TrEMBL record, chain A:
One of its GO terms (cellular component) is membrane. Keywords: Membrane, Transmembrane, Transmembrane helix. The lineage of its organism: Eukaryota, Metazoa, Chordata, Craniata, Vertebrata. Pfam families: Gpi1. This is Phosphatidylinositol N-acetylglucosaminyltransferase subunit Q.
TrEMBL record, chain B:
This is Phosphatidylinositol N-acetylglucosaminyltransferase subunit C. Belongs to the PIGC family. Residues 1-20 are annotated as: Disordered. The lineage of its organism: Eukaryota, Metazoa, Chordata, Craniata, Vertebrata. Pathway: Glycolipid biosynthesis; glycosylphosphatidylinositol-anchor biosynthesis. It comes from Chiloscyllium punctatum. PANTHER family: PHOSPHATIDYLINOSITOL GLYCAN, CLASS C, PHOSPHATIDYLINOSITOL N-ACETYLGLUCOSAMINYLTRANSFERASE SUBUNIT C. It is found in: Membrane.
Length: 581, 310
């Protein structure tokens, strides 16, 4: 049986005393938390232990005795130590002695109740108490927790050996707050016993954060109640709000702010990390947005942008007109029906004419609109990108209209053709049985059906070509908008706080531990140094990704192609309606 | 089989030899009794229930020739339609005149249709004259309305493609037509639709929308109304039907002759082949028929079960 003793490296300089810690029987491990020094009264020690147990909820007990290197009398200690073991009953009593020549090498003697002569193998593991206390061990063999409620349960279920050790040390945080300047009856040593470190700024911020949070949460709840009021949610308006990505992004940010400024403390590690990530992400976003504003509003760049906008719209319209003229001719040598060609071409040209007139009508106001809308970038870079996406959508609205017209016409034609093809063969679609059955038609039905079938068949190439052209244009616009949305999602979902923590304090997020062999001296136990293995960046991003209303393609490629072939309207990006990690 | 016979013979003789049984057992064609023969044994009465060619019909040459007039009739209809279209294309025939004549003929046929069986068929089908009038109005309106579209439908498609499509469609019409045989390939809907499709293709090649209108109307009359009339005529007065067929075929041949001599010769050969060669070949092949019937055939329900159904 191999026993592992976790010994804090800060205690290797301590004077002799009692080892206080927790014994974990299922892993044969003893975690030493502190050393109580001589002289002491056993009753007071027991009282102190009771208090610690009540405070930290950890099963601390006296595990053994510790002899520092400067202990003077060694002869009568063995009897003393045996008396100690009877006072503080424990199954396994450890007696650790520090070596004279080398201070970091210990010798041990394990006394087991009732079986004194059993020589057990002991491995001594040094650990950095402060780092282990602050670190959070991430279980790697489970999937990412789906929601916060179960995260705590899961960590208990899949606890590895070291998770218990980490857990024990972390729970004793309130015990480690007591240092040598407090009035205690017993002297002890742990990592913070020389005195606590604190900074005034941090304390001030902690004190001030509570009223600030209260004020903010009140403000935000007021704003959100205004937004959810009936006036703003009537049918045409709520449809508009759901389509404009700026409004959607602002709603998310409002949500995030509300999460950050709740007055309840974070219950577990995941909640705390989420709040911190949101806060840092929001700050960085706003900072980037302010940077953008400062760049944009210098040297009248807004004016230049507004001046460039109308010619760009004109240019796009002119290109579209040329495209339509080309289609009305004989495009790529394809055989088009002249009459239908001309009708469709003229119809679309008229639309473009209307659109251009509209743009010219609003051109005096564009600069002012842009100036005020640009101010929205102070709410964050993501909001600015959403505004850009909305502007693109508004500028290419006529392409969207053309696509809808072309798609509807084509869909109608395909539907009619398939139904009339069945009539041509003398069959009919049986809606009840969802299959094709034979049917005896009347003479006039047959006649008109065949006539229509012929007409639709010969007009198919023309309609198909128009549909193809406008679908391609629409897909280009959709792809551009999709890229912008992906960028926005990426920015808002990046867990910057966790990444920063990994960069500056890698021991805070632990993936596991690694051991370095410290000393191997013959007939002394194995000494190992436990070091924390931090999480990789990939794991951090996977684990701490912020929930976003991310957009992803709704259909697979085959479904998309099928929809395009049949002429159904395609909206490739879908926004999830509920949060997902 | 021979081995089985021998085995059976041996078994029978073996039975006779053994004195266990009082008399030799005769083999019965049952399996629910235990017999001393193996299960796959058949005695000398093997295949005595085989019958050969019991349902062979005896054809008579001239009857078959008369029946082949249905196919001749349809071939002539197609030829007449194509010839008339050709005339309009070459501007030998004005659309007004064609429209008037075909309308008069249709009216005459419509009246004769009822007179032939003195109204019995109309009472049976329950179709009123008012419904007929409505159908006519629908036809004419639709065709007239769509005529301008039909004219410009195939402007950009080459003439050869149009001709090829029409030929294909008319062939299909001939193949799927309901000649009165009870075969699976018959689909009167499909044949009519193919004929109309061909007529629309051809109509789009003519100079004006009036031409297109007249062509489509002519197609309806030739491919939809005329076969109906002929079926009735054949059912009621077969002799009259034969006379009409002959006149019609001669008219078609004359029409093809005015278009091209080669075509007329080929058409005549085709008609002769269908009318005379095919029946002769059919009767000749009857002698090599080798159908076997027996108790292993599927049961056929010969009775009309509609009296049992509601």
């Amino acid at each position: 049986m191999v026993i592992k003793i976790f010994f804090p490296s800060c205690c290797s300089e301590a004077e002799s005393g009692l080892l206080i810690g927790r014994w974990i029987p299922e892993q044969n491990a003893a975690v030493i938390l502190a050393i109580f020094h001589y002289p002491f009264i056993p009753g007071q020690v027991k009282q102190c232990l009771e208090q610690i147990r009540a405070l930290t909820n950890v099963e601390v007990s006296v595990l053994g005795s510790w002899n520092g290197y400067d202990s003077r009398a060694k002869e009568d200690l063995s009897q003393f130590l045996e008396d100690l073991s009877s006072i503080f009953p424990h199954d396994l009593w450890f007696q650790l002695t520090q070596g004279k020549e080398r201070k970091s090498v210990f010798d041990y003697h394990v006394v087991q109740k009732g079986n004194k002569n059993n020589k057990k193998n002991v491995i001594l593991i040094y650990y950095d108490q402060r780092k282990v206390m602050l670190s959070k061990l991430h279980p790697l063999d489970i999937t990412i927790p789906e929601d916060d409620d179960h995260a705590g349960v899961m960590s208990e279920v899949f606890a590895s050996d070291f998770a218990t050790v980490f857990d024990t040390v972390a729970k004793c945080e309130s015990f480690f707050v007591i240092d040598k300047y407090d009035e205690t009856v017993i002297k002890f040593t742990h990592w913070q016993s020389e005195g606590r470190e604190a900074s005034v700024v941090v304390e001030l911020v902690k004190q001030a954060s509570v009223p600030v949070c209260v004020i903010f949460s009140f403000l935000l709840s007021f704003i959100s109640s205004v937004c959810k009021s009936r006036v703003l949610n009537m049918w045409p308006l709520c449809f508009l709000w759901s389509k404009l990505s700026t409004c959607v992004q602002l709603a998310h940010r409002l949500d995030h702010l509300q999460t950050i400024t709740t007055t309840t403390k974070a219950q577990n590690h995941m909640e705390f990390m989420r709040k911190a990530n949101l806060f840092v992400s929001f700050l960085i976003d706003v900072a980037l947005g302010l940077l953008l504003i400062s760049w944009l509003y210098q040297k009248n760049r807004i004016g230049q942008l507004a001046d460039a906008l109308v010619p760009v719209a004109d240019h796009v319209a002119k290109e579209l007109q040329e495209l339509l003229e080309w289609l009305m001719g004989a495009p790529a040598g394809l055989k088009m029906n002249k009459a239908l060609d001309e009708v469709l071409g003229r119809f679309f040209l008229y639309h473009i004419h209307l659109w251009i007139s509209y743009i010219h009508l609003t051109s005096p106001f564009i600069e002012m609109i842009l100036w005020y809308v640009g101010l929205a970038a102070c709410l964050g870079l993501t909001v600015a990108l959403s505004v850009v996406s909305d502007i693109i959508a508004l500028l290419t609205f006529h392409i969207y209209c053309f696509y809808v017209y072309g798609a509807r016409l084509y869909c109608l034609k395909i539907y009619g053709l398939s139904s009339l093809w069945r009539l041509f063969r003398g069959k009919k679609w049986n809606v009840l049985r969802q299959r094709v059955d034979s049917c005896s038609y009347d003479l006039d039905q047959l006649f008109i059906g065949t006539l229509l079938f012929t007409i639709l068949l010969f007009l198919l190439p023309t309609t198909a070509l128009y549909y193809l052209v406008f679908t391609l244009l629409r897909l280009v616009v959709v792809v551009v908008q999709g890229l912008i949305h992906l960028l926005v999602d990426f920015i808002s979902s990046l867990p910057l706080y966790a990444l920063g923590l990994r960069l500056c304090r890698p021991y805070r997020l632990a993936a596991g531990v690694k051991f370095k062999v410290f000393q191997t001296v013959a007939d002394k136990p194995l000494h190992l140094l436990m070091q924390i293995n931090p999480l990789t960046y990939g794991m951090i991003i996977r684990y701490y990704r912020l929930p976003t209303y991310s957009c992803y393609p709704k259909d697979s490629w085959t479904t998309l192609c099928q929809k395009l072939f049949l002429g159904e309207l395609v909206y490739p990006w879908k926004h999830k309606t509920e949060k997902q990690d | 089989m021979r081995a089985a016979l021998e085995q059976g013979g041996a078994a029978v003789s073996g039975c006779r030899a053994s004195e266990n049984r009082p008399r030799p057992r005769r083999w019965k064609k049952v399996l629910y009794e235990r017999q001393p023969f193996p299960d796959n044994f058949v005695d000398g009465s093997f295949l005595e229930e085989l019958r050969k060619n019991i349902y062979v019909r005896q054809y008579r040459f001239w009857t078959v020739v008369c029946e082949s007039s249905v196919v001749i009739h349809q071939l002539s209809s197609v030829c007449v339609f194509v010839v008339l279209w050709w005339y309009m294309d070459q501007s030998h025939l004005s659309p007004h005149r064609l429209f008037t004549y075909s309308l008069l003929l249709s009216l005459f046929g419509y009246l004769t249709f009822d007179v032939i069986d003195s109204g019995a068929g109309r009472n049976l089908s329950g179709r009123t004259r008012w419904a007929d009038l409505k159908s006519t109005v629908v036809f004419v309106t639709f065709t007239y309305g769509f005529a301008p579209i039909l004219k410009t439908l195939t402007e950009s498609i080459s003439t050869d493609t149009i001709y090829a499509m029409s030929v294909f469609m008319l062939l299909g019409h001939l193949i799927f037509f309901d000649y009165g045989a009870n075969a699976a390939i018959v689909s009167s809907t499909l044949s009519l639709n193919m004929a109309i499709f061909a007529s629309v293709c051809l109509a789009s090649r003519l100079p004006s929308s009036l031409h297109a209108f007249v062509t489509v109307t002519l197609a309806i009359e030739v491919f939809a109304l005329w076969p109906m009339f002929q079926k009735k005529l054949k059912a009621i007065t077969p002799r009259c039907y034969l006379v009409v067929t002959l006149i019609f075929t001669l008219a078609a041949m004359l029409g093809v002759l005015t278009v091209s001599l080669t075509g007329a010769v080929l058409f005549a050969l085709l008609l002769l082949a269908v009318a005379l060669l095919c029946p002769h070949y059919l009767i000749k092949l009857q002698s090599s028929k080798d159908n076997i019937h027996g108790p292993w055939d599927e049961a056929e329900i010969k009775e009309d079960l509609s009296r049992f159904l509601g």
